[in-house]
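stage 2 :: seqdesign
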C-alpha cells in the first residue's frame, strides 16, 4: 500500500510541476497557432493578408489592433503589422510570416521602445518567422506571382467607405501580375470568430463578472438628485476597480425621456424621483466585450405603470432566451421576443433588432447562416414610450449551447423587479 501511495504521490508532484502553457492576452500561444494553421489550410492555393492597422499620429486615441489580427496573433501593440499567408511557399516556415514595422529609436523615445527580432520575440509571439515591413513588398510579390489568387479576409466595405486594406493592396498587385484573380474568403474568419473557444468564454465571463461589479455600484449609489453622468461614472469606476481597463463601448445612461433614445449619449441630465434610468454599459477584458442593459427606478421603486411595461419586456426577453440554442437564427429569437411584446399591444414600440454577436467587438462580426454552438450573443428587447417619458430595455449576454440552450453569462446582475428593488433598499 505504501509503495502505491508513493507512486501516486510522485505522479501528482510531476503533474503539479508541469509548466503552464505560454499565454498572450488570455489565450494560449498554441491556440493562436491553431487558428493560423486553419486559415492557411482553408486558403489552399490563395495568398491572404491580415492587417493590424495603423496608429493615430495624434494623442487623441489609443491604438486598437484590428480584431482579425488580434484573433490570429494575440498582438495588440504593434501598429502597422501585417500577417502574410503564403500557402504555396516552398519553405514551410515561410508560409505564414509576421511583418513588424522597423525599429525607430527616435520615435520610440516618445511612444515606447520595442524589441529586436530574435528567438525571444518569436517565442513571445509564438510565430516562427518574423520580418520587418521593409521586406513585405518583396515577399508579397513572390507569393502573388506563385499563386495569382488573392483571398480577401477583411470584411468588405460599402461603396461609400474606403476599400478593405487587403483588397486595396491586392488591387495594386493585380495590376502588375497578369492572370491574377480575387477569391472571397470574408466568411472564413467571421465563422471562426463566432464560435468561441473555452479560453474566450472564460475571458467573456470575466468581463461579465466585472460588469456585475459596476452595476452593483450603480444600484448602491443611484438616488434622486444625481445625474446621468454620475451613474455612468459609478459603473465605469466599478469596471476599472475590478480589473477592466475600459468600458467596451460608450455608456448609455438615459433617464426619463432620454431612456427612449436608443443610442443616447448626452449623459448629463439630473435624475428625479419617479423616473427610471436605462443603463446600457459593459466592461472590456483583454479585448473581449460585455454588453448589458438594465432599467432601474431612480427612487428605488417602480411605479405601477413602469412595472407593467417592465414585466412585459422581461417576459419577452426570457422567451427569447428560451428559444436560443445552437443552430437557430436571430430571426427565430427575435420572433420569440416580438410575439410577446406585440401581443401586449406594444409592437410599434419595439423598433430594433433583438440582439447581435458579441466578442472582440461589441457588435461582433456576424457570419452567414444559423448561430453556431459556443457563440455569445446579446438578447435585448425593449419598449419605448416617448409620450410617457420612459423606456425599458433588458439585455443579457448569452452563451449558445446545444444541450443547455442559452446560458446567461450576466445572470449575476439583478433583473427582476423584486431583485432590483431589494438591491436598491
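stage 2 :: out
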Amino acid at each position: 500500500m505504501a509503495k502505491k501511495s508513493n507512486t501516486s504521490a510522485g505522479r501528482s508532484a510531476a503533474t503539479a510541476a508541469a509548466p503552464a502553457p505560454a499565454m498572450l492576452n488570455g489565450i494560449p500561444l498554441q491556440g493562436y497557432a491553431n487558428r493560423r494553421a486553419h486559415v492557411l489550410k482553408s486558403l489552399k492555393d490563395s495568398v491572404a493578408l491580415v492587417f493590424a492597422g495603423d496608429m493615430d499620429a495624434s494623442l487623441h486615441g489609443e491604438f486598437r489592433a484590428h480584431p482579425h489580427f488580434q484573433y490570429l496573433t494575440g498582438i495588440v501593440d504593434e501598429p502597422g503589422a501585417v500577417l502574410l499567408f503564403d500557402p504555396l511557399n516552398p519553405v514551410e516556415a515561410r508560409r505564414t510570416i509576421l511583418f513588424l514595422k522597423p525599429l525607430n529609436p527616435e520615435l520610440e523615445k516618445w511612444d515606447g521602445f520595442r524589441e529586436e527580432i530574435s528567438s525571444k520575440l518569436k517565442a513571445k509571439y509564438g510565430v516562427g518567422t518574423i520580418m520587418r515591413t521593409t521586406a513585405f513588398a518583396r515577399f508579397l510579390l513572390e507569393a502573388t506571382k506563385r499563386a495569382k489568387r488573392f483571398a480577401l479576409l477583411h470584411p468588405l466595405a460599402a461603396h461609400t467607405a474606403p476599400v478593405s486594406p487587403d483588397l486595396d493592396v491586392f488591387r495594386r498587385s493585380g495590376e502588375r501580375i497578369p492572370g491574377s484573380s480575387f477569391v472571397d474568403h470574408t466568411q472564413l474568419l467571421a465563422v471562426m470568430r463566432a464560435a468561441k473557444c473555452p479560453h474566450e468564454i472564460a475571458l467573456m465571463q470575466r468581463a461579465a463578472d466585472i460588469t456585475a461589479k459596476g452595476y452593483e455600484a450603480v444600484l448602491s449609489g443611484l438616488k434622486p438628485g444625481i445625474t446621468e453622468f454620475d451613474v455612468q461614472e459609478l459603473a465605469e469606476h466599478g469596471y476599472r476597480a475590478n480589473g477592466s481597463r475600459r468600458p467596451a463601448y460608450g455608456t448609455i445612461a438615459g433617464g426619463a425621456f432620454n431612456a427612449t433614445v436608443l443610442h443616447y449619449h448626452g449623459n448629463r441630465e439630473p435624475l428625479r424621483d419617479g423616473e427610471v434610468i436605462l443603463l446600457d454599459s459593459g466592461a472590456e477584458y483583454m479585448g473581449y466585450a460585455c454588453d448589458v442593459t438594465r432599467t432601474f427606478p431612480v427612487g428605488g421603486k417602480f411605479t405601477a405603470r413602469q412595472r407593467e411595461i417592465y414585466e412585459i419586456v422581461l417576459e419577452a426577453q426570457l422567451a427569447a432566451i428560451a428559444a436560443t440554442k445552437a443552430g437557430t437564427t436571430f430571426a427565430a429569437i427575435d420572433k420569440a421576443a416580438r410575439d410577446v411584446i406585440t401581443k401586449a399591444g406594444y409592437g410599434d414600440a419595439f423598433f430594433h433588432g433583438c440582439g447581435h454577436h458579441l466578442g472582440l467587438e461589441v457588435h461582433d462580426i456576424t457570419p452567414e447562416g444559423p448561430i453556431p454552438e459556443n457563440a455569445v450573443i446579446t438578447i435585448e428587447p425593449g419598449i419605448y414610450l416617448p409620450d410617457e417619458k420612459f423606456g425599458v430595455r433588458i439585455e443579457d449576454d448569452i452563451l449558445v449551447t446545444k444541450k443547455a440552450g442559452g446560458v446567461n453569462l450576466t445572470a449575476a446582475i439583478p433583473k427582476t423587479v423584486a431583485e432590483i428593488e431589494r438591491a436598491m433598499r
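stage 3 :: structure notes
- Confidence is low (pLDDT under 50) at residues 1-5.
- The first helix runs from residue 2 to 17.
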